[in-house]
Amino acid sequence: MEKKEQKRHQHKHSGPKADKKNRKKEQGTEPERDERKRNPRAFSVQSAVRMAKTFHRTQDIKTKKHHIPLVDRTPLEPPPVVVVVMGPPKVGKSTLIRCLIKNYTRQKLSDICGPVTIVSGKKRRLTFIECNNDINSMIDLAKVADLVLMLIDASFGFEMETFEFLNICQVHGFPRVMGVLTHLDTFKNNKTLSKTKKRLKHRFWTEVYQGAKLFYLSGMVYGEYQTQEVKNLGRFISVMKFRPLVWRTSHPYVVADRMEDLTDPEDIRLNPKCDRTVSLYGYLRGTFLKNKCQVHIPGVGDFSVADVSFLPDPCPLPEVIKKRALNVKERLLYAPMAGVGGLVYDKDAVYIDMPSGHGSQQQEEVRPTTELVQSLIGTQATLDAKMAASKVSLFTGTAALTPEEVQENEKQNPMESREWDERAQRERRRAVFADEDDDDDDDDDGDGEQESDEEEDEEEDDEEDEDEEGVTTLKKHDKTAAETAAPPVKKQKCEVPMEMPAFADSDDELEKSEEDESEEDESEEEEENEENEEMEEGEPAKKSSGPDSGLCSEDDDEDEEEDSDTDEDGDGTVKSKMSSKHPEEENIDTDDAEMGYETAGALRWKEDLAQKATEAYLRHQLAAPNLRKLVYGTVAEKEEDDSNDEEELGGLFKVNRPEKSKKVRADAMDCSRFQPDNSHDWDQEEMLASIRDCFVTGKWEEDKDAATLLKEDEELYGDFEDLETGQVHKAKTGNKDQAEGGNDDEINGDDDDDEEEEAPQVKLDDDEVQKNKRLEKKRRLKERFDAQYDDGDATYFDDLKEEMQKQAELNRQEFEDVDDEIRVQYEGFRPGMYVRVEIPALPCEFVTNFDPHYPIILGGLGPSEGNVGYLQMRLKKHRWHNRILKTRDPLILSLGWRRFQTIPLYYIEDHNGRHRLLKYTPEHMHCGATIWGPITPQGTGFLAVQTVGGIKASFRIAATGVVLDLDKSVTIVKKLKLIGYPYKIFKNTSFIQGMFNTVLEVAKFEGASIRTVSGIKGQIKKALRTPPGAFRATFEDRLLMSDIVFLRSWYPASVPQLYNPVTSLLMPVGQKETWAGMRTLGQLKHDLGIRNKPNQDSLYKPVVRQVRHFNPLHIPKELQKALPFKNKPKQMQAKGKTPRDLQRPAVVREPHEKKVAALLDALSSVYAYKNKKARAEQHAKHKEFLKQKEKQEAERQKRMKEERKKTYRAMGQKEKKKLKSSLKGASKDN
Amino acid sequence: MEFEGCNCFRQRLVLSTLSGKRVKIRNIRSKDDNPGLRDFEASFIRLLDKVTNGTRIEINQTGTVLFYQPGLLYGGSVEHECNVQRSIGYYLEALLMLAPFMKTPLRAVLKGVTNDPTDPSVSVLKRGMAPAGGGEVLFTCPVRRSMKPVHLTEPGKIKRIRGTAFSVRVSPQMANRIVDSARSILNKFIPDIYIYTDHMKGASSGKSPGFGLTLVAETVNGTFLGAEVVSTPQGQGDPVLPEDLGRNCAKLLLEEVYRGGCVDSTNQSLSLLYMTLGQQDVSKTLLGPLSPYTVEFLRHIRDFFQIMFKIEQQKPGEDEQKGGEKVLMTCVGAGYSNINKTIK
Fold first, then answer.
1. At what angle do helices A820-827 and A502-528 cross, to 10 degrees?
2. Which residues from B are below 8 Å from A250, CB to CB?
3. Which band of pLDDT confidence, cut at 50, 70 and 90, is reported for residue A377?
4. ipTM of predicted complex
5. Is the model's pLDDT at A320 over the cut of 50?
6. Which of B125, B124, B214 is nearest to B165 (CA)?
7. Cα-based angle A582, A586, A592 (whole degrees, multiple of 5)
């Protein structure tokens, strides 16, 4: 059918509407611009509710976009970016690193060994680390990586390692990940190449995020990737931005790029397995590192840092940032483990690193060949000890002399007494032992010089051996000697500047000199009998009496100082000279303001006047640190020295002086009250006047004074017009500068005046002044404008952001101008510094099995993160791990910095808050887990693997989750069903036995609800005397003797306390990935070949069904009587024997009758046959008939259709004709 | 960590609890005629045990050696009978330091001596004077995940002084006498003074007689300075006149004002602790001269948290009449977060 044409709109040309339109046209198009005004009804509020909803929705969307603002704590000079290159083996990791390094620094590195730091740009440094194919390394590096280059062999496709690494990353905060496809040149067909690329890209995107960057390295040229492609990759790396990750911004960490063994070589010689002192070097990242904090080294364990110091940056950024690119000098490369980095500056020594292995390994090779020397080196005990045990007989037959007897004359020169030395023809050799002897004597001093002496001696030895050994070995030995010897020496030297703050030291000396000046004799007296004097003298007694003396702060503080000194003295025996002088000095130093203390004249004051003058000057400058020193004391070192001195006096007796002040202090009253100063007499007017300004009634500061503020206000809002009277008030412009013109908005009138006064003085800068003034004015105007118009929009979020901004600014500025040495003490070591961390008591395997290919990370631990406790976490089995996890099977977790093995208990929380133990983790659901492990802040993610050794599972990451809570009292319970059997049944009461053993047990469960297997509920009522453990219980129905009664109860499960750090770094080289901790039960059974014997009851047996016999239904007689007849059981009694008279006699036919019967039979069968035949015939006929009829019907239908068609056609033609005629008629009409 | 003597007993235990470091204190009054821990210290340990979970405490037989291994701060509802040797303030000062870092909000009911001359007083449900006590205090505190950095550098000017003069089991007239004498001094400075008289009767008046005065000066910037004096306990020392007590207390307040700063001398350590336990940002506070207790506290903070304060002295200006020297304390927070709080 055709579509009906719609009637077109007809414009009105006259009438009110047309008039309106015309009017509008004449006025212009203004109303059309603002539709709201033109048609207000269309924009009116239809529904207030809807409006509110839309408003809320837009606000929600807006607010959801916000992130919680954080204080920006990024350091000004950030540490190098850690770029981890990861991928399965043989995928081209080392090649890529080599190419990138070459791209950045134009240097070629043959062996990538340990972290490689380079300067990549004007503001950026990079540290490349190669991740080997070990899940331990993968886990460790995922925690420190800023950027991950994930290499994928395109010819093979993704490998499991890639996915495992991505999952590890996800758990520990996702660093930036860039994929790199290699081995693309193996594709011959272009189409398959592009298809593969696309496939890999999309898979990569689903893992990382949509649109993650994937690089293609198309092919190799001379064993390297194409320069252009590497350059592009380098560019991407250089401009990459990183987001702060929570764990890393709250924990300091160091990726160590250098390791030195500082252990005393003598100790190693005596016991090669002794604990080592090791210093590790690297850039500090994350946050501030405090000295003496705890660190965790993944793969080794927890250690406390002995000493941290910062070193000059070995790979610094260019100092001046110029516009041009870096020159060759500035493109630095630093990789000490790979043997690059040439000169290395330590605290006070300079190392020249030769590319070679480690000293300790070489030492064993380069042994002196002479047996004697070897035997000497092999000795474990020192000669001194041996000598003590040995005896010498001077003449044959006399008693042997013991060393004690010969001691007096031979102490100084032991070698001469030894005859066998003479025989050896090696007199000089003896010096070694002499020194060793010495060494033994001064062992407690631990002096570095001795060691160096020893080393020299060794060198001398070598010189003598020169004829026997090659020159090369000597050199090597020298080198190793230097290597091993240098660090301890260094250590000794640097202790002094490290522990003493510079100013404190100088102060100390100053004070000493000061004390010399004024109080020489007094202090001397005090040395002799300190406390007596203190008691006698007025001032000192007052001091010792406690906090109620002197000028409020300082005097008391000194007392404290004194106490702290004495506290650290320890035993409270003799105070040595130093410590006794010490407090006095301070007194004098700080109390010069105080009256009546500078009493005694000085005698030796003239001695070094000039020096004192300078010192005095310095002292004035360093007034502030004084207070700091009062609080924190100077250094512990001196006091320690003193404590060493106070051993024994006269050999036997300890001098035990009572030391009143100290004892009083140690056990003093613990009270926070601060007693008022006696010198302040609040009855005097001056004292009252001195705090007058602290009250609102006092004088205010210039900028806050009410009068000034009022004046300002007048200036600001001075001009106004009284609308009622029409009077115009003008602000007073008395002190205003007319030259500035217009309405001056200077807030501070005084400033203005000052500037005016200055202007004529400095004519030269007139323009500048004017300019500044203008700028200032503009700024103020803007400020005011902002204040006026921005305030309306300022939300809570904006305020918060601003606050954070301010805090960040303050953080940056507060210690900016402080010297690094002191700044480090306040803040700790800043991220970005190159630090040297000394760690004592590391296991020797760390050094002996050191492999630079494995990353060494020092992860700082926060307060109380070094402790071990119970952790509750939410855990989910990884959907790719193909087995569920079993409760109490050991699991290796990676949590925080740590990797450790522990035994988790899985549980699920029921609706009533009960933690129900699970035997296995659910398949696709979170569950709870409780472990015994290191305390880690809530919200930290973790992952679990079952083993770190070898690859047994197809996907090694077994579970992931998050720490929820650290609670020691969370109880996990498992269900316990106690079963009993009734032994006596009354109506609803039964006696149950077998559930408990004693009356006491029953008493505990009185009132508990019980149930039978068939579902009858009941309650325990009371214990029965016999049998023990039986009880009376009531039920809601009568029990049967066959019923089983059970009590459902909960039994607390205890968490096993296993915390076993994974010490993979301590494994021998080459076996680091074979660490195996505790085995799971399944593994144990597998290894030991134990098969479980199944419970016989649990086995499946063929089901044998007993045939059931039902008893006949018995209806009581009464009931039967009452029933209607229909329902009455019909009692058909079994028929008895029919009596003979009732039995019917058998019929015997006559022959004729037989014949008749036979005939009748025959006839009837004939009849039946005939009948059957006729019916069949009839049936066939009827069928035929039906067929016929159907045919006729079909024909009829056909005919009818034809007919109908004909008629319709005719009707249609008729209609057409009619239409035509009507159209004709219409046209005619028109 | 090892310490000697019972000095700063509370500080050590509190900081140990917060930092998770175990502490061993030796030679507690070892030379004393009555060696070992006193009852009030034992009571304090018991209180700590109540608010924590998993704490291990070992004391040797004579009580001269204490080993303390802290557990987790649990909080919740706690009721504690404080020893009458020290007032509740002694216990409450420590609780104040711990309370924000608990697992569940703390609601502690402390019973004992509410006012005595050595320790700070507390505002109360029931008053109880030394020596017998009988007072009661309710202390509640919400928990925090982390602390914000503190910036208190402008104390501002004092705009009003408020106070409470209390008397229990003595004539109610005593309080009025105290008020009169205190006002006589303070009126020279500021007219906005209001001192409440609080006379408690019956059960809420505790078991011993006594009276005292607490004064608080509030500045325009919202900082408070407090001072208080309590009469000597019955039967110990000379009795005091209420007039003298009032005057002394007023002078003590003036002394506090003279010292100045944003925090009064009693609470210096608390503010410093909160600065230390803040996020890793710079905190600043202006204090008056450091009290010996605070100095000890600073040293302990260094030992437990490795945090040193930058201490700058601010000399008063020439023509300013604002009391003595002030000390500006600056530190970078330890980045402490409440590891006890559960996340859901």
1. 80
2. 280, 335, 337
3. low
4. 0.86
5. yes
6. B214
7. 150
